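Fold Annotation — chain and its backbone

Fields — amino acid sequence, structure tokens

___
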Amino acid sequence: MTRPAFFFSLIFWPLLAGVGFACPDPDIAPMERHSAKGRDLWNPARFDVLAGGVHHLHDCELIGWGHVRRAPDFVFDLNRMRRFRRLHLRSNAACDTILLLRAPSGRWFFDDDSGVGQTASLSLADPDDGAYAVWVGSFRPEGCDAVLTLETF
């Protein structure tokens, strides 16, 4: 490698390597962590959250569009889910919210506006036991107060 190429690689490699660091990371400690059994969510559980964040999903190798934090807003450690056919999540807010979820299987889910109006909503069939990392984001850079609701069916 020539000296100029080596020099430029020293300068630009750290910048390029840091691009992925702005993406949601389920391995970072969440803002809140909760544990529940499937039957605990038969009655909807509600959690206050500030929707949004500074990281744009479009810049990541994930599905979806919107702004989230790097760390999950919540991790829900759920067990005894086998007898429930659905795990349903929705975000209610004055702004246009999005939901990003990483299931225990490692699969990612995204929604924007599947609920009423600008409400994000996810419904997972045959939910597994394990840790669900959840981001409540906003479509626009400005965030807002929101309520995340979880329930089983």
About this structure: DSSP finds one helix and eleven strands in the chain. Residues 4-20 have pLDDT under 50 and may be disordered. The longest helix spans residues 3-17. The helical segments are 3-17.
